[in-house]
Design a protein that fits this description.
94 residues; alpha+beta; three-stranded antiparallel beta sheet; 5 helices
Length: 94
């Protein structure tokens, strides 16, 4: 298992897209929801056309993401799991 670099440039790239990141906006608007994957919200093509994908996820090899919202706004806390090769299944969300 490899670790993901989290330098200032990576954090800045992610933060630039907070408002238009569908994973963040979905978690914020669905408090208490089950875990969900990027493929639950978007097609692969839609995902790869996002600015957050181009600027943050792709350079880090973060192709498939599973998100668990651990708190609600105003301070949204989430846990994200990443895979490079295999998409998360519905079973992975439970």
């Amino acid at each position: 298992m490899s670790s993901i670099p989290t330098g200032a440039s990576h954090i800045a790239a992610f933060e630039r897209h907070i408002a238009d990141n569908p994973l963040v906006t979905y978690a914020a608007s669905h408090p208490g929801s089950d875990a969900f994957a990027n493929t639950d919200l978007l097609s692969e093509r839609q995902w790869r056309n996002l600015g957050v994908y181009a600027d943050h996820h792709r350079p880090l090899g973060l192709e498939h993401i599973l998100v668990i919202a651990a708190s609600e706004l105003p301070t949204l806390v989430g846990i994200a799991l990443f895979r490079e090769q295999t998409a998360f299944s519905a079973r992975d969300c439970y």
